[in-house]
Each structure stands twice: as C-alpha cells, then as structure tokens.
Amino acid sequence: MTTASAPIAGRSGVSIRNTSPNTPFFIFGCPRSGTSLLSRMLGAHPNLAIPDESHLYNNVYPLVARYGDLSLARVRARLVSQILKTEHIRTWIPAPSASDTLSRLEKNDFHGIVDALLRGWAALVGKARWGEKTPQHTLCWRTILSGFPNAQVVHLVRDGRDVMLSYRSAFFGPKHVYPLALRWRQYLSAAEEARAALGEGRFLQVRYEDLVTAPERELRRICAFLDEEFTSDTLNFYRECRALPPDRRNSEGLLQPVISNNTGKWRANMTPRELRIFEALAGDCLERLDYERTHPAPSISRWESLSCRYFEHPPRHLSSMLRNQQAHRMIAQRLRLGLSLIARN
Asked: Domain 25-159+188-258+326-342 belongs to what topology?
C-alpha cells in the first residue's frame, strides 16, 4: 500500500552531509530479488557510486586465499591485473586501471584491493562513497565483514515465489522449484546471520514489494540509514546512461520508471504442485517475513523429493547451462585466474 510522503527535493539545493564518506555499504539479497533496481536507484545518488556486479568474493577470493601471497607487491600487481580482466569488471564504465587501483591501496590484502578498486571507480564517476552489489556476496558475509568491519548492509527481500519465477527464467541458476526454494531459504538464512552479527544499527531490511509500491518512502528510509540526504535523483535512476548487465529482461526494466505492479506474479504463474513444493520447503520463511501462504500444512514425500533433485531438475539445468555462453566464459575465467596465481614467481 502506497503511503503519502514528504515533498521531493530536487538536485538543486540538495545538501549532501558527507558525514561518512569512507563507510562502504553492501546490498545483499537473493538473486532476482530486485537488487539491480535498488543498486541503480542508490547509484543515481550524487554521493553514492555502485558499479555493476563485481563477483570478487564469490569468484576471486577463494582462489586468492589458497594461492596468493599478497604481502608481495608483484603478486598484488598480478592479481589486480587479472581482476580487471574478469568477465564482470570488464563491463564497468568507466574502466578502472591497474595503476590507479594499486596507487590507492591502504591495506596489502584482498580487502584492500577491493576497497582501492571501488574507491577508484567512485572517483572516476565523481562520487565520494562506494557501495557494492553482488547478490552472491550475501553468502560471503563473514569474509566481507572481516575486511570491512564498519560496513553497512541493506538487505532486499522479495516473496520467494516471485524470486523463483524470475530465477527460473534467467540465463543462470537452477530451473526447478525444488532447488530454487532451497536457494531462497539459504540466502535468507545467510542474511539473518549477518543481521545478528551487525546489529540493527548497521543492517537495514527492505521489502521489494514496498520499494516498488512506495519508492520515495523506502528510499528516504534507506538514505537515512546510510546517513545521506534523500534526493529525487534516486527516483529518476532510469534516466542515467550506464552500461547494462547481460540479462536483457533485467536491463529493459532498468530503463523505465519503477513498475509498481511487478509483484504477486506467482499467483498466476505457479502450478498447484509448484506452490505446494515451495511452501513445503520454505513456507516457514514466507510466514516469518509476513508473506501470505496458500497451504497451511504442505508436505513433500521422500520419493518426490528424490525425483525433484535427481530426475526432474538435472536435465533442465544441463540444458540451460549448455545454452549459457556467459557460464562458459566464467568457467574459463576461473581457470585462467587460478593458473595465473599458481604460476606466480
């Protein structure tokens, strides 16, 4: 339900407080929960810089932790060079440089490289403060907070049944309700753990449904949490000319104003069996987040569970992976990065 809000301040006359220009923030959330929309909204703020997804902690960090000795300048230089060649960082516009990133290092570890890279990109776009949005980083929250103990987190949650539908139609990820329900549950669990570790002062949970039905109200709340002045630029995010992610459907949605009725699609697009399976696996999560349930006591038998996991889902996932050219490039990228780190002198 949309509520009335205070008048919107325009770009002119906006006084950005800049009280915490060095405090990074991370947008967490299960993939297909609207994190791209939120990152574009906040990235349109005159003080906040949020590049496209980096996938640094889920794709790069595991290899570095095993093979890289970042106390050595040559290893840091090699790692930065490899990071700039990764599938995701190569899409950043403007493109960061190795020399600028290395010159900004304040800590000679992986977190220091992440900070230098993002501070450098923020400077390139004329912003004072950086944020980062990679949904998979939600599962890496312990590693991230070990490197950025003062970071703030904005967690975006969406009805898992709508997440399931969007995830299933995406070019990546599982393609069956069974693993998708478990994945949504996994992300919620990780976010809840991060919330407990951070405390309410540094963790803000936002519902996607509230964001699209009352965007100004929610953006004011988010800006207040980040200690930033609200500006109408965040509502006009779609007017910015920026490189878009490879997901065409997702990209098209970011080129127009907020679609307020982009909720509750599961009612018309999930079969009764899919609803039963999803709510049997994650119905308690729906209830905890105040989403309506359709089955008071859904169940799934052991044999149906085995069928979903080993007979129904694998062929769908394999077919999707064979068509997913970006997944092929990501595999090649991971091999290349691993070989580079192993071959260090």
From this structure: Rossmann fold (3.40.50)
